[in-house]
Structures are given as structure tokens and as C-alpha cells.
């Protein structure tokens, strides 16, 4: 069973894949993803982005941008 951070991280990855049309290394403002998924700037959202980054599904740029990695793109195709 997925924990809440992993579950939300997977939603973020799927939405980023849709938003970027699957293009590799396309940077997206985290605010855009949060707005599209109606996420709050809170510990749960931060934990989800951190989980996605530590799992190798996305890279974080500074504190406000993210892009899918190849592993993140492959995850959305499962």
C-alpha cells in the first residue's frame, strides 16, 4: 500500500507528464503543478515533491521548479 507522500508524488508525476506532453527535461514551475492539482503549500506537498525527487522521478531546480526524469516519464507509462 502506498503512503500518502508516495501517492501524491505519483499524482504530481502524472500531471507533470500531461502538462509537458512527456517532453524530457522540460522545467515546470512548482506553483503551476500545485495550482493544477489544487495543492496547498504545506508539509504534505513538500513531502510529496521530496519523495518524487528522492525516488529519482523528478529533479528540483532551486526551490520553485521541477522537471521529470526519464524514470519519472517511464513511471507514467506503467
Description of the molecule:
The structure is a single chain. The protein has 78 residues and is α+β, with helices and mostly antiparallel strands. It contains four helices and three strands. The protein has helices at residues 4-20, 30-36, 43-54, 70-75; strands spanning 28-29, 58-61, 65-68. A three-stranded antiparallel beta sheet has the order 1-3-2. It is globular and about 30 Å long. It starts with a helix and ends with a helix. 24% of the residues are buried.
**Main beta sheet strand tally, sense and closure:** 3 strands, antiparallel
Helix-strand string? HEHHEEH
> End-to-end distance, in Å?
17 Å
**Major β-sheet strand ordering:** 1-3-2
In percent terms, what proportion of residues is strand?
5-15%
**Given the helix and strand composition, which structural class is it?**
alpha+beta
Number of helices: 4
Helix content: 40-55%
**Quaternary form:** single chain
How much is the radius of gyration in Å?
Answer: 11 Å
**How many strand segments?**
3
Low-pLDDT runs of 5+ residues are none
Report the mean per-residue pLDDT as an integer.
91
Gross geometry: globular
Topology, element by element:
Blueprint lengths: L3 H17 L7 E2 H7 L6 H12 L3 E4 L3 E4 L1 H6 L3
Helix pairs in contact: 1-3
How would you briefly describe this protein structure?
The chain has helices at 4-20, 30-36, 43-54, 70-75, and strands at 28-29, 58-61, 65-68.
Keywords for this entry:
78 residues; alpha+beta; 4 helices; 54% helix
Amino acid at each position: 500500500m502506498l503512503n500518502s507522500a508516495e501517492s501524491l508524488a505519483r499524482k504530481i508525476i502524472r500531471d507533470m507528464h500531461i502538462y509537458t506532453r512527456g517532453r524530457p527535461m522540460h522545467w515546470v514551475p512548482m506553483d503551476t503543478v500545485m495550482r493544477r492539482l489544487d495543492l496547498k503549500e504545506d508539509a504534505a506537498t513538500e513531502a510529496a515533491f521530496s519523495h518524487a525527487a528522492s525516488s529519482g522521478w523528478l529533479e528540483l531546480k532551486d526551490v520553485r521548479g521541477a522537471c521529470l526524469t526519464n524514470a519519472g516519464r517511464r513511471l507514467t507509462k506503467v
